[in-house]
Known about the structure:
- This protein is α/β, with parallel strands linked by helices.
- It contains 17 helices and 8 strands.
- The chain has an 8-stranded mixed β-sheet with strand order 3-2-1-4-5-6-7-8, sandwiched between helices.
- Helix 8 links the parallel strand 7 and strand 8.
- Helix 1 crosses helix 8, helix 9 runs antiparallel to helix 14 and helix 10 runs antiparallel to helix 11.
- It is globular.
Amino acid sequence: MNAKTKLRTTSSSATTLGLCAVLGFGSQGTAIALNLRDSGCEVIIGLPTGSKSRRKAQRAGFSVTTVSRAVAGAQTIIFAFPDHCHQRTFASAIEQHLHPKQTLVFLHGTSISFSLVTPPTDMDVIMLAPHGPGISVREQFVNGKNEMSAFWAIKNDARGKAKKRLLAFAKAIGIVGQKKLFETTFDDEALGDLFGEQTVLCGGLTELIHAGFTTLTEAGISSDNAYLEVCYQLDLIVSLIKRFGIEGMYQRISVAAKYGSLKTGPKLIDAGVKKRMKAALNEIKSGAFARELSALTPAQLKILDKDLKKLTSPEFEKAAKKFG
C-alpha cells in the first residue's frame, strides 16, 4: 500500500462487502481494485484466460482467475469491464454462477437500463458511477483529497441492505460523505452519461477544438500557436465555469472575450446544433445505440480505433505532446 494511502473503511465495512470480485482491470477496474484492497477489503480479479490485463493484475499483487470462478466465490461483484461486453459475458460466464446473497455493482446504468443484462430479482443490484476516470479515482484516494463525487442508484434491494452495501463500497473506493453522492436512477444515469459523452464532453468538444485548430492553421497560423489558443487554455475556462457558473466565467474574462463570445458563439452553436442533439438523444432513448454498442465485434473495434484517428491530425497531436 502507498505510504500516503489511509485505510478508509472499518473492518465492519470490509465485512459488509465480503470478497470483492472486480471483473476487468482497465482504468476504472484497476483504480477500484487498488482502492478496495487499500481499504482492507479482500479482492479477486476476474478476467478471461486470454486477457492481456492478467499479467498487469498479477504484477499488482492480485489473485487472478476466470470471470466465472471469480463470480462464483464472491459476495460483491463489480462490473468494471467495457459496457459493450456486458451482455455476452453475463450470458456466458456470469448469470449461471449468481446466488441471492450476492451484490452486483455497476459503474454505469447502460446495461441495466437497456436490458442488456437482466439480473435475478432476488439479489441486490446497485450502481455507483464516479464523476471521473479511473486515474482520478485512484489519485484522489492516494492523496486523501476526498473530492470525487458519484451518482448512485439501487435497482434491486432484495434484503433491505442494498444501500448499506452501496455506502460501504463508495467509502471503500474513496467517495466519502453523503454530500459527494447524488441519487439518480439507472435510466437517468445511462441517458445522461451517453448523451453527455457523445454531444458535449467527448464527441462535440473534440470536434469543436479540432475545427478551430484547423481553421487557424489553414489561415497560416503555426500549429503551436493554434493549439495554445483553442485547446491549451480550455481547462482554465472549464475551471471557472465549474466554480462560478457560465455567467461567473464571463465576469472573469476580458471585455474582448466577452464581446466576441456574444457576437460569435450563438452563430456557431445555433438552433441546428440543438436539433441534432435532440436527434442523438432520441436515438439513445430508443435503445438503438446500446444495441449497436453491444453488438460490436473485435474486428469492428479495430476499425473504430482507425476511424477515431480521422477526428484529429498529426499536427494537432504533435502540438498536444509538446505542451502537455
